[in-house]
Amino acid sequence: MQVLYGRHHVRVFRFGLRLVRNEQVAEDLISEVFLDVWRQAGKFEGRSAVSTWLLAITRFKALSAMRRRKDAELDDEAANAIEDSSDDPEVTVQKKDTSEVLRKCLTSLSSEHREIVDLVYYHEKSVEEVAEIVGIPENTVKTRLFYARKKLADLLKAAGVERGWP
Amino acid sequence: MMAMNKKILQQEPGDIEALLPWHAAGTLSARDARRVEDALARDQELAKQYAVIREEYAETIALNESLGAPSARAMQKLFAAIDAEPARKPSGSLNISARIAEFFAGLSPRAVAYSAVLGALALLLQAGVIGAILAKQQGGSFQTASLSGPRQESGPQAFVRFAPDARVSDIATFLDANQATIINSTAGGMFRVQFGDKPMSKQEIAGLMTRLQNEKIINLAAPAQ
Hints:
- The complex is a heterodimer.
- By secondary structure, chain A is mainly alpha-helical.
- Helix content of chain A is 78%, strand content 0%.
- Chain A contains 9 helices and no strands.
- Chain B has 2 domains: 2-65, no CATH class; 72-223, no CATH class.
- Chain B has helices spanning 2-9, 20-25, 30-42, 44-65, 72-83, 92-105, 110-137, 168-177, 202-214; strands at 157-162, 180-185, 191-195, 218-223.
- Chain B starts with a helix and ends with a strand.
- At the A-B interface, helix 1, helix 2, helix 6, helix 7 and helix 9 of A face helix 2, helix 4, helix 5, helix 6 and helix 7 of B.
């Protein structure tokens, strides 16, 4: 268990944190995830990578945790996040820090878009693995990421950053 | 490629275009990667979009890396919960070991599986070695802490995980130098270790934990309640 925990806990934590947006909740989440793994190790059939299995459990638990929180709280949070990303475009451009703006916009994406961007870029999951973790068909994985990227481009444009796509 | 550009206008990704993010992350099959490479060499618009994707890829990694790591609280909570799990059957430790080895053998890629199994084996070996030290400390007959009568609880206790390559002599020296006693091993393979027989202040315990974390032969250390 220590080997497994040592190898995966940081990535599991970060994936959970990006979804629930609360460090305390994310920490509780990883304890629950690894405890589940401890209890169900015998059920792991080895058909997929262990990290894929862990991320699928984390996602399920994160969504449950998010559902437990009040809707109003989530709405406020989303509104604040969007406000953050759409500073006065001129001011943002003056900062000349596209990286910073891009990161803010990545944070402002919906949880559905955030998770798919993270799974593909940061967790380096294939189309098949993302489909398994999120529980959607492979073609939907591709189109969802495409739309997440389009949304990102819209947010960047609103913040005054033009990248020539789309 | 005209068809592909048309699809962009229609806001639907083309076949190859939809694969670009996975190409940037290096997770495509060799066949698909070749298809994407060929298309990128032919289509300037696609290459331009790929450059944008590479930027998104780099920033997503940077953003995630900036999130830091969980505190020791999460690990403590986990191992305390594992500790509180109902006891397994007498032959349980063997079953768990076999289960863990089997579990890691199922990992992919293969290299990870090999290293994980080796890690598990190293930990099992270490557990045996530490078990021997524990038995020696208790006068040759192994008993769990709960069966060994009233134990010294005045000194602070910590959950300690030794490095898989820690040698017996290193562990013995460490225990001697710190007047430490291994109380028991937890279900998760951590060891509960008691330090001395005098209570310590919170500050002293924090200092002890820092010192333990800096020990080469220790991978993880957290205060035990």
